[in-house]
Amino acid sequence: MPTTVLPPSHPLNSDTSTSWVVSAYRGSQPAVTPVWFMRQAGRSLPEYRALRVGTHMLDACLDPELVAEITLQPVRRHGVDAAIFFSDIVVPLKLAGVAVRIEPGVGPVFDGPVDTPEAVEALVAGHPPQLLDEALAPISEGVRRTVTGLRLLQGGRDPLIGFAGAPFTLAAYLVAGRPSKDHLAARTMIHRHPGHWAALLGWCAAISGRFLRAQVLAGASAVQLFDSWAGSLPAATYVTHVAPASRATFDAVRDLTDDAGRRVPLVHFAVGAGELYPQLDLDVDCVGVDWRTPLDEAALRIGGPSVQGNLDPALLGAPWPVLRDAVDDVLRRGRAASGHVFNLGHGVPPDTDPEVLTRIVDHVHSA
Q1: Neighbour order of strands in the sheet with 286-288
Q2: Residue 193 sits in which domain range?
Q3: Strand ranges (DSSP E) for the chain?
Q4: Are 178 and 115 in contact (CB under 8 A)?
Q5: What CATH number corresponds to the domain at position 341?
Q6: What is the pLDDT of residues 162-197, one digit of tens each?
Q7: pTM over 0.85
Q8: Cβ–Cβ < 8 Å for 127, 97
Q9: C-beta atoms surrounding 233 within 10 Å
C-alpha cells in the first residue's frame, strides 16, 4: 500500500513520536509505564458534569469547543499520558445521516431496526459512505482544538488518541435498533442473511474508517477501535464474518506515516473477548485487554503486539492497599509484552472518586 506522509506540523512529526504512549504502542518499554483511562473524560469528573448541563450527548460530541474542553479535563486533573478523543460510538452514524438519539438510561435508539435484506439495501443505498466526509468538519475542528490545548498544557508531550466503534458494534446496534444484552438479532442475521450482513458490515467499516482518518489527519497520534460486543461471538464466526470488516476499518489509516516512515499506531480493543485474543491482532500495534484475563496470559495468546490494560474497574472502590497491589500486579504482568500501556480493563465507572484515578497515575509513574 502506498504511504501518505503526515505534514511536518502533525504531532507525530513534532511532539508525540517519542512520548511514552506512542513508544509503548510501537513495541518498546519506556522508562516510565504510560497510563490513561478509558472513559477518563466523563461522568466521574464534576467539571464534566457541570459542563454538560443542558446539552444532549450527541450535540456535545459535535461541538468542537466543548469536545476539546472535555477531552482535556482528565489530562489537567490526573496527569495521564494521553487524551482520548471525546465522542460516542454512534456519532459517525449520525453524521452519515442515520436517525439516532441517545435515550437516558437506555443508550442509542434508532427509528427502526436494520434487520432485513431490504433494510440493509436501503441503508447502504441511501447513505453513501463518501458523503460522510462532508459532515466531518466538527470532528476535525474538535481534534485541532484539542491538539492545540495539549500543546499548551503539556508542551505537546501527550498524544491524542482517535476513537471509533468497530463495525460489529455499530451493526449490532443497527440490527437491533437499540442496545441489546445478547445481540441475538445481529448474530442471527450473520447466518440467515450472510450476504447482506457482509454488506452492512462493509458499510459500517467504511463509516468508521473515514471517521478515524479524519481524526488522524487533524492531529490524532494513534487510533483505537472499540468493539463492545465482539465477546458475544464464537471465534469461528468472528474470524469469518467480523474480522475482515475490522481489518478494513484499520486499512483506512494504515497508509498514514510520520516523516520517519512509521505508521500511526493502531489499537484494537474488544470487550469479553478472551477467547478471541489470537484473532484480534489484525496487523495492529497494540491489543487492549479487559479485566477478565491476566495480562501476561493475554500477551501470550495475542503474540507480538503491545498490550493495553487491564485493571478491573471494580477495584477503583477498594481500599488503597488492595488497589495498589492490584495495580502492581498489572504492571508486573505487563512486562511480558513487547510494550505496555496501563489502563483499566474497561471504562471508568461514573461513581469513581477522581482522586483515586490521580493516585493511580502517580503510583504507576513512580513504580
Answers
A1: 83-84, 160-165, 222-227, 266-270, 286-288, 306-311, 340-344
A2: 4-366
A3: 4-5, 83-84, 100-103, 107-110, 160-165, 222-227, 256-257, 266-270, 286-288, 306-311, 340-344
A4: no
A5: 3.20.20.210
A6: 999 999 999 999 999 999 989 999 999 999 999 999
A7: yes
A8: yes
A9: 26
Q: Residue 359: how many CA atoms within 13 Å on its side-chain side?
A: 14
Q: Residue 281 is placed in which grid cell? A: 491482532
**Residue 267, Cα to own-chain centre: how many angstroms?**
8
| Domains: count for the chain | 1
Instruction: Give the strand pairing for 256-257 and 107-110.
Output: unpaired
Residues tagged active-site: 39, 43, 52, 88, 173
- Dihedral sign for Cα 270, 276, 278, 282, please: negative
Q: What percentage of the chain exceeds 90 in pLDDT?
A: 96
Q: Are 188 and 112 in contact (CB under 8 A)?
A: no
The contacts of residue 271 (CB under 8 Å, 6+ apart) are 227, 228, 229, 230, 231, 290, 346
